[in-house]
Input
Amino acid sequence: MRLDSSGLQVLTREECLRLLASTPIGRIVFTDRALPAVQPVTFHLDGDAIVIRTGSGSKLAAATRRAVVAFEVDAFDPGPRTGWSVTVVGHARAVTEPAELERLARLPLHPWAPGGRDHYIVVRAEQVTGRRITGGPPT
Output
């Protein structure tokens, strides 16, 4: 087990991808009018790609076209002070090819928010990092 300079366990790429696949909600970080923006989204991990379904006219759809974005998921338990966090950085792209759209529509990706969700964004996991905290002394 490798630790970082803060004493947190450094996760392997494989463990990070497993943890990504274990949760349906993450946060995408993108640029909106030259400022950082963070939005919670439902997603599905498809191989090493994050698939997000949104409305075609949404701010997220417009802001992520061919942009570098970050994506984060985590889980924490404050009682025993344990948890993990995984961050992905990669290029986002809008899906326009009919065969790929058809395939992505069959994924178990069910948005929680109301409204139409006919636009797919795919983020290839180019950089993947993760950390785990295994508990610490109470403060």
Q: What stands out?
A: The beta strands are 9-10, 25-32, 35-46, 49-54, 68-77, 82-94, 119-124, 127-134. The two ends are 26 Å apart (CA to CA). The domain at 9-134 is CATH 2.30.110.10 (Pnp Oxidase; Chain A).
